[in-house]
Amino acid sequence: MKYLRTCKKSIWLLPAAFALRLLYGVFFEFRFEDELQIYLLGLKFFTTGSWPFFGPDIVYTHTQINGALQALLAGLPFYLFKDAVMPYVLLNVLSFAALFFLSWYCVRLTAVPRWIVWGWLLFCPWTMNFSTHVINPSYVLFGAVLFFIAFLESASDLRVNIFSERVAFAVMGFGFFWIFQLHLSWVLLVPVLVYAFVKTGRPYKRFFRNFLFFILGSAPMLALVVPTFIRYGIWGTGGSERNIVFNVSGLKSFFDVLFRTLSFAGFEVPRFIGHNTEARLQFVYRHVWAVPFILYGFLLGLVQPLSLIYEFFKAGKIKGWNFIRYFLFFMILVTYLSFFFSVKGPSSHAFYLLFPVVSIYAFYAWSGYLNKKAGRVIAMLAIISSLVFHLCIAVEKYGTSSMFALTSKGRGRDLVNKALVVKDYHVLGARRCETGHYKICY
Known about the structure:
Helix content: 55-70%
Number of domains: 1
Shape: globular
Order of helices and strands: HHHEEHHHHHHHHHHHHHHHH
Largest sheet: 2 strands, antiparallel
Strand order of the largest sheet: 1-2
Number of helices: 19
Number of strands: 2
Radius of gyration: 22 Å
Distance between the termini: 50 Å
Strand content: under 5%
C-alpha cells in the first residue's frame, strides 16, 4: 500500500517521462538502412493491404524472419491516424509499459529507491536508444520483460506473486513467440524454457498443465506465424536457418560477450556517439557545454561493469541473490556458446533481450550502495547526465538523419505522409528484398 501511495504522488511524472522518450525516438535515427527497412515493412502493409508473411531482413544471408508481427506493429498504428509518427507512438507505449513493469518488479525485489529504478531504466542509454525508435530490437524489449519476469515467477525464488504458475507459462509462451518474429536471439530462450519445464515438471500432470498454458499463451503470436508456414512450408520460408553456421572464431569472444552484456545496465557512451574515436571526439567538440555530463557518464560506464563482476563473488545479499547471479552467468554462457553457430560475431544489440536479466542483477548488486546517501547522489547525477547526453544526441540526429532532416528527396515525415495518401510505400523507398538477392520478398 505504501508503494501504491507513492506511485499516486508521482503519477504526474509518468506522462512527462513518456513524452521525453517519445520525442527522443521521433528525433532519433530514421534514415539509416536498418531503421528505414523496418519502417517500410509497416508502410508497405498499410499501403498495399497485403498480408506480411515475413518480418525483418537478415542482411548477412539475404533471408527474412518468419511471421507478420513486425510489419503489423509498424503498420497498424496508421489505421488510427495517418501520420508518420504513429509507429513511434505504439512502440513507446509498449516499451514504456515494459519498463514500468520491470521497474516495479526490481523495486519489489531489491528495495532500491523507486525514483532511482524508474529514472535509470527509463532514461539509461540502452533503453533510450533501443526502445524509442523504430527498429526491430526496440520491440524485443516488450517480449523480453514479459518472458523473463514470468520465468522468474515460475521457476525461481525471486517470486513476488504477480502470476500464478499457469499464467506465468502462458506469458512465457506469448513472450517467446513475440521475440521469435522479431529477432534471431529467440534461440537464447530455449534453454530457459527447458529449465522452467524441468523445474516444474513433476508430477507429470503439472508438466502437461504448464505446457497447455504455454501453448494457450503462445496462440496469439503463433496465429501470426502459421500463415507463413501454411503458404511456404516450414522449411521453405524466409531461410533464417541459413544463419546457422559453425564459427570457430566464437571461441575467443567470451569476455567480449561478458562486458557487452553487463554494459546493458551501465552508462555506455562510446557506442552511441560514433563508430570510431574521431567521430566520438567530433561529437564532444560539438557539445562542449555538455562535456562534464558526458565525461561523468563515460567514467561511470567504465566502473559499472567492473563493479558487477566484483559483486558477483560476494555473498550475503538479499533473498534471490544466488539465483539471479548464477542465472545471469548461465545466460552469458549460453550467449557465448551461441556464437559458435552464428554467421556473425558478437554485437550487443543481437542479445539485447538480456536487458531485463542484467537490470535485475544490477539492482541486486548495487542495492547496498543505492540505499546510502552517496549512492543516491551518484544515481541522481547519472540520471541527469543521461538526460543531457541524450539531448545532445537528439540535437545531432534531428538535423542529419531523423525523419525531419532535409534530404534530396525531401523530409522523411513528408514522404511518409504522402505515401499514406497515395497508397504507395515506394514514395519513401524500396524494400531491401526487392533487389532480387532474396529468395522471397514481402
